[in-house]
Amino acid sequence: MGNHLLHERGRWLLHAVQIELLSVGWIAAEAALSAVAAHQSGSLSLSAISMDSAIELISGMILVVRLWIELQTGQVRISKRAEQVASALVSGLLFLLAAYIAIRAGEDLRTHASIEFTPLGLAITAASSVITPWFAVQKRRMGRVLCSTSLMGDAACNVVCTYMSWIVLADLGLHYLFGWWFVDPIAALFLLYFIVREGLHAAEGIKTGQHVHHH
């Protein structure tokens, strides 16, 4: 019975690693395509999504390594020091991103900056609004089976990213339909709330050495 349970856990761990690798691949694609769309349109909210996704890659890759180590060795945790360094890096980058968004949004509101519509931006945010919640469901299911707080935290992170995608999707849609110049900087300021929360959560990991995924 014990061997059967170990085999089942190994099977779920392998599935979790596969889902996480797909997730990291999607995040990388989202970061790159959002950056291209942001360059084409001049959209601050798309820039924010792109940079947030790039930062999220760090914590995503840590979780892949962590799950792989458990799959291969049975060890649940990687180095606490490595977790703390990653948390400090992610936290610092997120706070820098928050400062950039706040300054840029204020400038865009002051100058009435407008953006250009880009089909790529609409497509990537629409895809993210569907794909990211699917990842959240899968990770939550595996987190419960494996009793993994890291996977549950990653699922929660995907839920937050879904909210962010919906905000940007609404931003681009309203701009396309009505041409409202002020929607983009306001949407970016809404994203600011989530990014600061991510930064604060990552900062907690500097002291605790726990996984840096955002909630």
From TrEMBL:
One of its GO terms (cellular component) is membrane. Pfam families: Cation_efflux (PF01545). It is found in: Cytoplasmic vesicle, Secretory vesicle, Synaptic vesicle membrane; Early endosome membrane. It is a multi-pass membrane protein. Keywords: Cytoplasmic vesicle, Endosome, Membrane, Synapse, Transmembrane, Transmembrane helix, Zinc. InterPro entries: Cation_efflux_TM, Cation_efflux_TMD_sf, Tmem163. Its main location: membrane. One of its GO terms (molecular function) is monoatomic cation transmembrane transporter activity. Residues 31-201 form the Cation efflux protein transmembrane domain. Gene3D superfamilies: Cation efflux protein transmembrane domain (1.20.1510.10). The chain crosses the membrane at residues 12-38, 44-65, 85-105, 117-137, 149-169, 175-196. Belongs to the TMEM163 family. This is Cation efflux family protein.
